[in-house]
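User: I'm putting together a teaching handout on how multi-component assemblies are represented. Below are the sequence lines for each component of a complex, exactly as they appear in our records. Could you produce the 3D structure of the whole assembly as structure tokens, so the students can see both representations side by side? Please keep the chain order the same as the input.
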Amino acid sequence: MMKSDEGVSGNSNNNNNYKFKDNTFRKYGVEVVAYDNNNNNNNNNNNNDDNNTVTVNSRGFHISIHPFSFRNKLTINQNNGSIGGSSSSSSTSNSVSTPKPQSFYVDDAGIAKQLNQSVFDILSRSRYLSSLSHENLAEFIAAEPSQKHHDQMLIVSEDYKNSLEKQIEIQAKRQTPIPSNTIGRYAYQILKALSYLHSQDLTHRSLSLDNIKLDDNNQIKLTNYGLYYLSDHGENVSFPIGNLLYLSPESILRGAKGSSNTKADVWALGCILLHICLGYCIWQDNNPSIVTNRILHLSGYSTTQSFNSISKSFEQCELKKTIINEKQHEEYEEYDDDEDISEEEKEKRIKDIKLNNRDNMNNFINSLKREEKENSDSNSGSSNSNIGIGLNGLGKELIEIIEQCLIPNPMDRPDSETLLDHPYFNEYKNIDPYQLQWIIKPFTKSWDLPDSLESLTLKEIESYGHIGSDNNGGGGGGGGESDSDIYSGKEIYYFWKLLGGNIEKELVNKGFAKASPSVHKLPLYVPVKASLTESTNSGLNSPQPYQHQHHQHQHQHQHPNIIKSKNSTVYNNEFCLVELSNVFLKIKESFKLYGSKVFEEGIEQSNNNNNNRFNNIENNIELQIIIIREFHKLLYQYQYDDPTLSQPKIYRLAKLFVPPILRGDIWSSILGVNEREAKQLYNSINLDVKGPNDKQFELDIPRCHQYHPLLSSRQGHVQLFKILKAWSLLNLEKGCYWQGLDNVASPFLVHHFFNEPIAFASLKAFVDKYLSILYVPNNHAALSEIMLIYQQLLAYHDPELLNHLMDIQLDPNLYSIPWFITVFAHILPIDKLEILWDSILLCPSSLPNFIAASMIIQFRDSILKMNFEDGITMMSMIPSVDVHKCVSDALSMFNKTPLSTTVTKFVSNTDQELWWMQEVPFEKRKLELFPRIDIHDLINDQQKVILDIRTPLQFQQIHYPSSINVNPKLSKLQQQMEQYKGQQIVVIAPKDQGVDFTNQLIQWKFPFVSMLNGGMDSLEHGAHSLLIISNKN
Amino acid sequence: MNNNNKIFQFKLVLLGEAAVGKSSLVLRFVRGHFLDYQESTIGAAFLAQTVCLNDTTVKFEIWDTAGQERYHTLAPMYYRGAQAAIVVYDIRSEDSFERAIKWVKELQRQGSPNIVIALAGNKLDLAAKRKVETAEAQQYAEENGLLFMETSAKTSQNVNELFVEIAKKLPKTPTTRPGSGRVAIAPIDNGNTGKKNKCCN
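Assistant: Of course. Below is the structure of the complete assembly, with chains in the same order as your input.
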């Protein structure tokens, strides 16, 4: 009977298919390996098409969509019959003492709904879940609000077809129970995942057989672990979370929605392990009331159900005396709610509650064992035989673990970490490649061996060998250079969407999205006079509407105290699996199409001559797949290896394309942020002290980019506050907070949500690079300087527009301050801002000036017709700017503009001789409409018209080759000059002269006009040999 | 006197502490809408709106300024040449009232002579959390010859009324021709020298 099924005995799988990658940015997901067979070609007849073999090792990877309805906390103000956001005393809502303004929208049916905080809060929490990463957790990919049903959220998650539930069915059919060592490995892997979740302050709460998935290598992947956290412990949903069959007694006592702690998951694990080993659920029923009573009975309560150890079954019985009474329940509630009481007090109180009676549970498990024994002795066909391996088939230690999981009192029940330390699991740990993660832990260049290295066994050390080597094994063509990567679930989902995937359509196609107005969506079971027991009313007042649709095959009893409502939608435990073969195929094609060499050459070409081999990348999925692979390598190298090597490559690749899915990581690496240093710095700042700007932050944060779901969530406010505060504390001395820094910080927070250190470090680096001269107590001079440069650039490229702006007295002072003081973060919505910043980060820090000019030029045709008032009003239209055009225009302007135009010409303590390098009063410079350039820009570019306006005599003595001597006082000057219009013009003038002449050119709408800084003197000083000097002297 | 159909144009500036609702008041007055979370104003924002009185039309060129103290250096640029000012405070904040009084003093000292100043206690819809008593503000306004109203940009209570009262009080002399309300774009000097800046405390 104890034959081990091949598909089940997972231990042997570990070393073959479970290669642990140590050189890629992503750790878990879909693995792709391309083997280039060119190098050691044994088979000369190889077809060219087969030169490299690409394997996609998906291990049964799927994506599932799981829709759930969240609670619309709609409050109806009964005073005036209108629907309002703030809850008044007569409102139907029983919560919220301080009214918080909410916005509403009215749906097709005319029903006002809240575009509410809960959506934003759910979305912000989803970002926490998607930051988790563990080998036994299915990746949480995203939560997206449904476009169709405004009270529905769609959870997108990694998923697998096979689950423990199915596995048990399969094994039952084959009459081969799941063997003991496999159960042990399941227990080990589930515990690992749980202990990871618990270490992240998360409770699964709905652990059950159907959401413990198995990948194709038969490894555990927990799913659906996010719902409890996402819904704020069930607050945001109108259905109870958790499968009653695996619900812990304390969770039941706390009511359907009461919060659970992590110990509840341990109970669930116990039930599940027992289920696997017995082959049936220990509660032997599906009626919520009966199951509840049975759970509580085994936990030491006297209920209407009791376990008869002689008949070895649960029996209905007369309730003699109710142990749970109102008082005790209240105590329990108090324990939950009162946060002020001390830990000891809590412990004392919980001890009062009679959960510490373990007799019934022990009795129960012992009779199970006895029953098994009797059955096998008599060999009689019991109804439950042959489905599970049975308790006696399990090792003693595993039974002990199960018994510990099922300790009724949560205070006595061990936590997941303690259980994981049980010696029973040592044999699994020893062969677990993920246990060795510390070797390649992030942030360590070398192997970070633990102190206890001596204690490692030979076997353990041997097993490391499997980890470092990547190139052997795998399912590929063998030999040759391999090119591999792992794509995370988020990336697979991104590719799927690029290929036209749409979760809403997918749900409709698979029949998931049944349209029904949300007002009809009442809970399936409405507790009328909910009580714990049927015969008395002394039970709990909390509703117990547990019913799960996935158990429909079993008969559902109607609880007398629960009314079933019509047209209802209860929590649906169904998951819509998405077919991904098109994505995997695309990845294969991409790897074949762009081998490493092909891709390298392509980048070279497109970088060198701007040709369009790699154009339109946004729609080129193959290329994006490869670009992401490249970024994975580079970003990994940047964080954990040599940043100086990879940063230039990241620049180069990012200029080509910044994949939105990696934008945050790319930005921070371009800004020079190192994860470890960022964490050290951030953690060294004490945020508990009172900061100088705290009050201002509190005023500004709640109105910063509030259209954005993450930034308007409570979590977003908290995190933004911490980042801003950390920045202001760090810059106490020199820097200071200007309103607008909140806007600047926002994009970084959005990309590094729940990762404050990186968001903070990125903000810091960004401010240091672009804004340090502005974020000082007095920034007036710096700001004026920037606006002057902007105005001169505008004159250089669009003199007509500048002239008009000056005519209508629309000074940059009046509209451009928020542009420059926030690098456009204040005026643009985040999605547009990101496009701008992609280029700004990759270009010299003068680019914002060009962006500003190209931005206003986009509106030139309108502005030229406008007066002051319309013009200034027009500036509020700037957010509608086409950012892509803006960027490409700015870049082409940048390429056409001499570099020195935007560079400050002053050098302090210069020689009196070098008068052109000395500071000129701002008031004087402000009169110059044109930029000044340095001699390098004059010499390096021959395509310029050089107008020398010195006297003919001076010109004769010395002049620059091919320069033209012009008399600025000429009567028909404009006609004379007309021939040069449109060419780059540089004016060489005597000291302190030429401003009027050059300004005149701009007023005549001559573009590309500049003046040589220092005139002939600087030429003589710096480029004497180039000048043409008359010999007469 | 025949002012029929005549349009008079005035420059009006809003001053007051951060987040007291300056922008919200202007947006309620000009566009008739209200946002719960109005982005903070950086630098200043410009909007225009006309008010019809019995026999004349008054056009306001409104400069809505940044409230954060740091942007104080910019304020003179906007109130210079203004014929009217609304100094706003939040009725729930005594600090903002104190700040309003400082603004009034600055305007009286450095603003245009004969400038019409209105004091507005905003967020009247949140009167339950009031900290500044109406009588107190009323008395201060009377002593200083200010117009005074408590307003709510959210419910629009007293918003139009406030602007109408200002329009009524402004002198309709032939010299106030359209366009005279243009901003004087002379950058302020006190920030320029970089030596001693009285504005940043």
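A couple of points students might notice: The interface with chain A takes residues 18-19, 36-40, 42-48, 61, 66, 68, 70-71, 73-74, 77, 182-183, 185, 187-188, 191-192, 194, 197, 200 of chain B (CB under 8 Å). Chain B has one domain: 6-169.
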